[in-house]
């Protein structure tokens, strides 16, 4: 069993993986001012909650899009596990054929998503990762990573709306009972949820035209479960995709 960690702009996802089976997933808030010791305490507390002895873990691996805290979190994890922790980045073997202008610019989380997607599903495929930003990864029928899209995430759109409209207060992300809202809160919920679902449906249609074939569509990330049930196109919801990818990369690169 290994410790798999994904550091995002809003949340840090922690899970224990045995092969492609996930024992648990927990999310911590990404706080750039925390010290190495504070993150070590967070990791220890999560493992204690699930009654996992750190010394029984084989090792760990981290993907991160927040360079400011990657080193601190790695040292924190090594402090708890007493083992070396891998970082997804230069020098990691992925087996992924990246056809972008600058392959090195591809975020570690997107690399991990793609590795897991190719292991679990049939290409060509689209992978929607719905976090602070919503990213779309496009993998063609030859298993090559062609590129994708990045647009504001659901939470970012909602925060922007409430920050710039004085009479609109913060709301929770739950679909209202009816598409047509009957009050301000219902209207906001309907607008955010269904516009996000419609965006996914529209992107799928356009990507299918671009690729000239049908596609497998996978959605992952913290907000995917809020939006995917309202999509009209077939979308596979896989909450564990990124942690599965980290487990695969760990096995490919362990000494």
From TrEMBL:
Alphabetical UniProt keywords: ATP-binding, Coenzyme A biosynthesis, Cytoplasm, Kinase, Metal-binding, Nucleotide-binding, Potassium, Transferase
EC number(s) from the headed UniProt entry: 2.7.1.33
Recorded GO MF terms: ATP binding; metal ion binding; pantothenate kinase activity
Cofactor note: A monovalent cation. Ammonium or potassium.
Pfam families per record: Pan_kinase (PF03309)
Claim: Lipid biosynthesis is one of the keywords in the record: no
Cellular localisation: Cytoplasm
Top enzyme class: transferase
Residue ranges of the TM segments: none
Cofactor(s) needed: NH4(+); K(+)
GO biological process: coenzyme A biosynthetic process
Annotated K(+) binding sites: 129
Record has Chaperone as a keyword: no
Family: Belongs to the type III pantothenate kinase family.
NCBIfam families: baf, PRK13321.1
Identification of the protein by name: Type III pantothenate kinase
Classification of source organism: Bacteria, Bacillati, Bacillota, Clostridia, Lachnospirales
